[in-house]
Design goal:
Layout (H helix, E strand, L loop, with lengths): L2 H18 L1 H17 L1 H12 L3 H14 L10 H4 L42 H9 L11 E2 L3 E2 L1 H11 L8 H4 L4 E2 L11 E4 L4 E7 L2 E4 L8 E4 L7 E6 L28 H16 L4 H15 L12 H4 L12 E2 L4 E2 L10 H5 L1 H13 L9 H9 L11 H12 L4
Antiparallel strand pairs: 1-2, 3-8, 4-5, 4-8, 5-6, 6-7, 9-10
Helix pairs in contact: 1-2, 9-10, 9-13, 9-15, 10-14, 10-15
Length: about 400
């Protein structure tokens, strides 16, 4: 372990002490301050040499200030501000503490807050994602665990989960054994750990095809496209309990307040219903157009974004946890056909995008002569040309209720 890594480890221990024994924490902080003071010129020279005069240095300083937020002068975040437990019950995860000089009193402690890899009942994947994004711009440093200097991939993951009150071990090979396994990216949720290249790399999934990690030397922590969707994925581990994990699709505030009709929809269904209503309103169309679109989507997909193995690229464009369909070459909310020029509604990207697919539906609906005087089911069938023309009628009442609540006027 290098000297820099040793200091980082000492500061980790300091953070643990601060939660359980403020007096011991004060002594440790004083000792650490003395050690840092004796080597300040060397460390300052190293840091200045790597960041001086560069835009990266400015970004790092800003990112660090944002990341540390409520941190104290020694870089240890206040336990109360982070909502971490303040008693020593079940302490697990401070492995190695008992062997350090001056900390013999901790020899009986066998773990970290809440147990290694365990999370409190109130923790959500969104909280993990928010904690991770605070470190955007912090540089990659191999072996690093301290955002004041930089972090590597597993050090970053460890720090993020520590911030939300969950103790994880230090290296990928240990982190990838915690929590529960997730079968595939289709089932991945916000806050899940993505392990790739054997045990060579780890990142945090943010949903909607995005991940965040400390990537490699010379780079900084950033939100990126989750290339794990396309390959090199070794394992997915869920640290946040399934019941508490946030869905991969965020629900906008406009769809958060629900009434009797929308209350029967799950968060992703409400989001898609809101997208449809927003597109209708943006065009200046009457609420009736949204009833047509929502009733069609309820019949065709139950307001879900289906991908299809017969349509190349549809799985990669689907959100996390999206269902798999097998009907012809149909994909997306409206099960629009994507198969060359025959039966084609557009590109796979068009059909898999909720806004674009809604626009394609509305284009065909409003092109129908007298569509507003037709029955809802007849207009839906004229657009979709389904093998089951009578199926749309049963969704009209539900669609009217959903649109009335989301559109803000009678449907």
């Amino acid at each position: 372990m290098t000297f820099t890594e040793s200091l980082g480890r000492i500061e980790q221990i300091q953070g643990t002490l601060a939660q359980f024994d403020p007096v011991a924490a004060s002594r440790a902080a004083s000792a650490a301050a003395a050690r840092r003071s004796s080597t300040a010129s060397a460390l300052t020279g190293s840091l200045t040499g790597s960041l001086s005069g560069s835009a990266a240095g400015t970004d790092f300083a800003g990112s660090l200030a944002a990341a540390l937020g409520t941190a104290g002068s020694d870089g240890t975040a206040a336990a109360a501000a982070l909502g971490t437990p303040t008693d020593a019950t079940g302490l697990s995860g401070a492995s190695g503490l008992s062997g350090l000089s001056g900390l013999a009193g901790l020899a009986g402690l066998s773990g970290a807050v809440g147990g290694a890899g365990s999370s409190g009942p109130g923790l959500t994947g969104d909280q993990v994602a928010a904690a991770a994004k605070r470190y955007v711009g912090v540089p990659y440093v191999w072996g690093g665990t301290d955002p004041a200097r930089g972090m590597d991939c597993s050090g970053f993951v460890q720090r993020v989960f520590k911030d939300v009150g969950v103790a994880l071990p230090r290296v990928v090979s240990q982190q990838m054994k915690l929590g529960t396994p997730v079968a595939s990216m289709a089932q991945a949720r916000v806050g899940d750990l993505l392990i790739s290249h054997g045990s060579g790399h780890i990142s945090i999934y943010l949903g909607d095809g995005k991940a965040i990690d400390a990537p490699m030397p010379g780079r900084t922590i950033q939100v990126r496209d989750a290339w794990e969707l396309r390959g090199n994925l070794t394992a997915i581990r869920r640290i946040v309990p399934e019941a508490a994990a946030a869905p991969g699709i965020a629900v906008p505030a406009s769809a958060a307040a629900v009434g009797p009709a929308t209350a029967r929809l799950d968060p992703s269904q409400r989001r898609y219903a809101q997208v449809i209503v927003d597109e209708v309103r943006a065009r200046g169309l009457p609420a009736r157009a949204a009833v047509n679109a929502v009733s069609t989507a309820l019949q065709e997909s139950s307001l879900r974004m289906y991908w299809n193995p017969k349509v190349p690229g549809s799985r990669e464009l689907a959100p996390a946890g999206a269902p798999r369909g097998t009907d012809g070459y149909s994909v997306g909310l409206f099960q629009q056909q994507v198969h060359g020029t025959r039966f084609s509604w557009g590109t796979v990207a068009d059909a898999m995008d909720p806004r674009t697919s809604t626009r394609m539906f509305l284009d065909r609906l409003t092109a129908l002569p007298g569509w507003q005087t037709m029955s809802v089911a007849a207009a839906d069938q004229a657009v979709q040309r389904s093998a089951y023309p009578d199926a749309y009628a049963k969704w009209e009442s539900t669609a009217r209720g959903i649109v009335s609540e989301l559109y803000g006027t009678g449907a």
